[in-house]
Amino acid sequence: MKSYIESLEWRYATKKFDSEKRVSDKDLNLLLEATRLSASSFGLQPYHVFIITDPDIRHSLKEASWGQSQITDASHLFVFANIKNFGPELIDSYLKEVSDIREIPAEGLKAYGEFMKSKLVDLPEDVKENWTAKQTYLAMGNLLSAASTMQIDACPIEGFEAEAYDEILKLHEKDLTTSVVVAVGYRSKEDETQHLKKVRRPKESLFTHIY
């Protein structure tokens, strides 16, 4: 297996996928687990991820994605949808999981729950939506990194009409909205982008050490 840095050097935003190559169920489950284990503020993970293979739905989503071929040609399409608004129930459900998994009495988590609620529940709705959307990008980063270490290609996509996605996937019924999309699969030999040198800002201009 390549080193982590070599894997990041290898990956690029794949523009043309080989529509005949599929990600195996075993590898897909590893990608799902890497996504599930992503960091998230307070551990709340205020989003849901849809993995779409249905060709009709993906054709509709392609039309809402400026005709980008990755939407239909990739093996799997990950749609990250963040919660638009929430109340104390989001925190309560998380604390129940903490109590169950760590075998901690719920009463012992009450103070922590009240702290989280004091910081989040009364925020304006637009601030909540912006915060939950940011959490999806943390999960997406894990997905992209995991895929690269497995030599699986991926393309993060922001070029789409969120309202159309929400309608096609009926997200309004779940109080969710589309945040970001990732096409996952294997690059086509015809994708010329893979031969381009990776361009990133040099360390000297990106990082500042403060001693």
From TrEMBL:
PANTHER family: NAD(P)H NITROREDUCTASE YDGI-RELATED, NITROREDUCTASE. Pfam families: Nitroreductase. Residues 9-186 form the Nitroreductase domain. Gene3D superfamilies: NADH Oxidase. This is NAD(P)H-dependent oxidoreductase. One of its GO terms (molecular function) is oxidoreductase activity. It comes from Muriicola soli. Belongs to the nitroreductase family. Its cofactor is FMN. The keyword NADP applies. Keywords: Flavoprotein, FMN, NADP, Oxidoreductase. It comes from the Bacteria.
